[in-house]
Design brief:
single chain, 71 residues, 3-stranded antiparallel β-sheet, 3 strands
């Protein structure tokens, strides 16, 4: 199945946003999701999806107090 050019662009943008999420957490350990979203310029819902992916990939950790830090 061929990937259209817009799908490739969206996938690249998603990867860039995830990298921005991880970089923000590394620079600002202990940040809450809303702070990270504001810091990288996305809505909270988008940041939540990025957080789930980053945690699942082992790139960041979510603590019991709902703050994030680098893994």
């Amino acid at each position: 199945v061929a990937v259209s050019s817009w799908q490739a662009v969206r996938a690249r943008q998603a990867g860039e946003r995830e990298a921005q999420f991880v970089a923000y957490v590394k620079e600002n350990p202990g940040s809450r999701l809303a702070d990270i979203a504001r810091g990288i310029g996305v809505q909270n819902s988008a940041a939540n999806g990025l957080a789930k992916k980053a945690v699942a990939a082992g790139k960041v950790k979510k603590s019991a107090d709902k703050t994030y830090s680098a893994a």
